Amino acid sequence: MNHIFKGAGVALVTPFDENEQICYSSLAKLIAYQVENGADYLVVLGTTAEAATLTQEEQESILQFVIKENAGNLPIVLGIGGNNTKVICDKIKNTSLEGVDAILSVTPYYNKPSQSGLIAHYKEIEAVSPIPIIIYNVPGRTAVDMTPSSILELARYSKKFVAVKDGSGNICKCMHITKDAPKHFIYLSGDDKNTLPLFSVGAKGVISVAMNATPRLMSQIVHLAMINQFTKALQLQHRLLHFMEFIFEEGNPTGVKAALTSIGIVQNNLRLPLVPSSKELYDKIEYELNHNEII
Predict the structure, then answer these.
(1) What is the pLDDT of residue 1?
(2) How far apart are CA 4 and CA 131, in angstroms?
């Protein structure tokens, strides 16, 4: 199966101006930067986009802008998630999905549902979604961890479930999923620094934060891993390793927005409760960008 979500997907940030309004000129620059430097697909309105702080009108505007600027160059994945199943289903039904290739939907947070509750939640989403679904498991943010058996149950239940983005970084979980997954279903890393080792046990791609600032190098690492060129990929990964660690030190997208500011793509503005990086972190990130040939 020629799976369009293999490879290097980028979780786009939302650029803001000094008044915390969406900066569409910076967003256009960011999209072009990804298209020109090896990204395989774009992920819009995920965690990295600060989607929780965007109004419904802003979210709709960003989606339509990305579709227009992308101009069909790359597949587009749209984040639609939350902890109220009915609200999510209604949002899917009421969102124009023309130009969108899949939905990325995070496990419900705060409620802490059981595995049975998680499965039932995603089956409700499957019933209303007209397009493929990528399950997003990120226990560090949601306080729930979807098990391999639950993920595989959904993969077998419907071919609409095409992938899981797993942010657990758990090598054994990846092996269990990739060992028994149906052919239409793939494992995507949701953790930049663990992407290369996860490829060695069956991962087929990543939805990356680091790619916002370093699309050329990150896509090279992923594309080498896809053809089992792990020695070459590891050499590049070593160049990017400290950067990958630094951009998460003070939360996401705080670090990667500092990086994007350093290279002149966005202004260093976030919406509360997130704040710009400390000067110490900014300086460390800027040093990596300027001295390790990662951009």
Answers:
(1) 45
(2) 13
Q: Is 109 a catalytic residue?
A: no
Residue 77 and residue 35: Cα distance in Å, rounded?
Answer: 15
> Could you confirm whether 165 is annotated as catalytic?
yes
Predicted confidence band at 12 (pLDDT cuts at 50, 70, 90)?
very high
Selecting among 165, 193, 204, 284, the annotated active-site residue is 165
Please tell me what DSSP assigns to residue 105: E
CATH architecture of 7-227: Alpha-Beta Barrel (3.20)
Q: Which listed residue (33, 41, 122, 136) is catalytic?
A: 136
126 vs 281: CA distance, rounded Å: 41
162-180, pLDDT tens digit by residue? 999 999 989 999 999 999 9
d(CA 211, CA 8): 8
Q: Which tens digit of pLDDT belongs to each residue from 81-133?
A: 999 999 999 999 999 999 999 999 999 999 999 999 999 999 999 999 999 99
- Half-sphere exposure at residue 151, Cβ-oriented, CA atoms within 13 angstroms: 31
Q: Tell me the domain boundaries of the chain.
A: 7-227
User: HSE on the CB side for 166, CA within 13 Å?
Assistant: 31
pTM here is: 0.96
